[in-house]
Design brief:
binds coenzyme A, alpha+beta, five-stranded mixed sheet, 5 strands, globular, 171 residues, Aminopeptidase
């Protein structure tokens, strides 16, 4: 889309607006997971705030972005200057589950609900794939929840296949 721009963010470019938007977008993502999490942990959904999110302040992002293995892209709506999507990935150097390092791990790709289905998720994933190639990384991995059917379709469309299943049982 013409009015949307994707750019890589370094720690010196972080603004309060960007950080607020990243946390808001992560809340949208967590919203998808809520039903499952409530069942799992027997917590009351009403007004519940995830404690992990309160740790995601400027210091947190600045610390994370000092790591050269971390990549953060944001999508900006040029009209409103709002951050409406992001992709966060990290290069891993450890051998894990038959995956030989180095491997790029996509930690999160989130697009604001009002901007979905416009190709932004695809462009974010393409940027990460390009970065991986530039670093001579031949594998990209990620974890996706089984019930997140949209994300699964999104990644399958991009050529990802399932290597393993993480199984859980509630006691
Ligand atoms: C998954 C997500 C990032 C996709 O972003 P997006 O910008 O809407 O995706 P795109 O427009 O680039 O779609 C690319 C392809 O993915 C698939 N896809 C995307 N949304 C879909 C949907 N709602 N239903 C089915 N397929 C879908 C389609 O194949 C689509 O190609 P097409 O539009 O040509 O059919 C977005 O839905 C999102 O932010 N979801 C919540 C967060 C999340 O679950 N992230 C993934 C786990 S980290």
């Amino acid at each position: 889309m013409r009015n949307l721009e994707i750019r890589k963010i370094t720690s010196s470019e972080l603004t309060d607006e960007i950080i607020h938007s990243l946390v808001d977008l992560e809340k949208q993502y967590i919203g998808i997971l809520k039903d499952f999490l409530w069942d799992m942990y027997d917590v009351n959904a009403e007004g519940y705030e995830f404690p992990e999110l309160s740790l995601k302040n400027k210091e947190y992002y600045q610390r994370v972005l000092c790591n050269p293995d971390v990549l953060l892209y944001i999508v900006t709506d040029k009209e409103t200057q709002k951050t409406v999507g992001y992709a966060y990935a990290q290069v891993r150097h450890n051998y894990d589950d038959l995956v030989r390092p180095p491997v790029m791990e996509i930690c999160e790709i989130v697009v604001d609900i009002g901007y979905r289905r416009k190709g932004m998720g695809k462009l974010l994933a393409e940027r990460l794939e390009r970065d991986a190639r530039e670093r001579n990384i031949r594998l990209i991995q990620l974890a996706v929840h089984e019930f997140n059917t949209i994300a699964k379709e999104f990644y399958v469309k991009r050529g990802f296949t399932t290597l393993m299943r993480k199984m859980i049982k509630k006691l």
